[in-house]
Write a structure and sequence with these properties.
This protein has 488 residues and is α/β, with parallel strands linked by helices. It folds into 2 domains: 215 residues, 3-Layer(aba) Sandwich (Rossmann fold); 175 residues, Rossmann fold (3-Layer(aba) Sandwich). The chain has 18 helices and 14 strands. Helix 14 packs across helix 15. The structure holds adenosine monophosphate (AMP). Adenosine monophosphate (AMP) binds next to helix 3. Adenosine monophosphate binds next to helix 3.
Amino acid sequence: MPAEQETAQEALTFSDLGLSAKVLSAVVDAGYTQPTPIQAGAIPHAIAGKDVLGIAQTGTGKTASFVLPMLTRLERGRARARMPRTLILEPTRELAAQVEENFVKYGKNHRLNIALLIGGVSFDEQERKLERGADVLIATPGRLLDHFERGKLLLTGVDIFVIDEADRMLDMGFIPDIERICKLIPFTRQTLFFSATMPPEITKLTEQFLQAPVRVEVARPATTNTSITQRFVKCGSKPWAKRARLRELIDAEGDTLKNAIIFCNRKSEVATLFRSLVRHEYDAGALHGDMDQRARMAMLENFRKGKLKLLVASDVAARGLDIPDVSHVFNFDVPIHSEDYVHRIGRTGRAGRSGEAFTLVTKADRKYVDAIGKLIGQEPEWLDGDLSTLTHEDDAEEKPRGRTGRRGPKKEASDAGEDKGQGSDARKGRKEAIKAENTERKARHDDASAQGERRPRKQDHRREREEDNSIIGFGDDVPAFMKIGIKG
Ligand code: AMP
């Protein structure tokens, strides 16, 4: 059925949207005065019980666009044991945890039971929450199905079903799980469906599972967001050369660098770069799929609160995270999939602030940079000459003596691990962090079942690639939707 086109209305206030008094009071306390376009467009329909197809990405206020109406609607009725009243599916644990935070913030005047079902956390505690009766169940698809298969969960009481970040779910191979989950929930439910983009597979899913949805589409934050200065930086292809160049860039930014996310393509590179930065006495942390949920959340919290300056991350781990004020993004590796570039640099320059994005480029990355240029519709701006100006020294086999690129006051240290000045508490803390990370990695390796949101399934191409430390992106597995011809 064709979706009803709806124009988002920006001039509305929150009190025009039909939200309950309790929700309005929490919104006022959160300091929000005006709904964002996705909120203005979606909330009235969601409260009216209609299906909504929201085309919006993280950063547009879309979380509140489903959390606020859900809270309003949940004020009537009670949860029963093992029968959640609402279900929200999220592609990653971090996004699921962020949605939970939103329920806590906006639901402070409600007494709702919220259960979070994500991987990397024990089943027992989650089962206890289900047993008590959940008003709101927030889950990643694999862990949800695990609970279902253990017989601890019935989805027949779900009245409101939210699928968030649907295109990301597609990338991660979750669509078959979502189809299965959709069929476990009563047909009479209300479905709120969000996706940043609408590839054919997602359109098909909405046609199959939404009923006469109201379509609310908000503008994508411009890929060429003028508040982000994007620069490409040529560098040698050897890992040590890339790390040295990165340190040079960080040092050169001086005090203008408040905090930064540094993206790598591989999980193994995240760990190596994190260690290297710590050895060079940078204030760094890491976020990748090998860390357990608690460690990931703690790392993120420290970064958010400004206790940690540099966060080295993989795409999957960092996807959609709401970190409002990041001054810099560094792409240690050029993303293979050019859309990832847009997502990555979109971590900075948020909410009208200015941001800096630097991308390290080796000779082998030329075609990926060309693809990014095409996607963002502009020629790459090179910091100090394009790839044709690479010198032999840049691509030398041997690491030149003394070239660590340090300009700041920190001590020299090699990537091979020589560690000077071990007396300081900060250094000890970082060394312990590395040790803890190693122990944790070993434990996780030993117990693969505790690894992620879901068991390995055939369709998990992208996710498996990250777990295998191989390249994230499409690689040889171009998804079917990319091969479908686009008319016009
Ligand atoms: P989201 O797109 O849901 O990740 O939200 C992005 C950010 O916008 C979060 O930090 C929210 O707290 C914030 N936010 C949500 N709604 C509003 C609003 N109406 N006015 C200002 N900020 C908002």
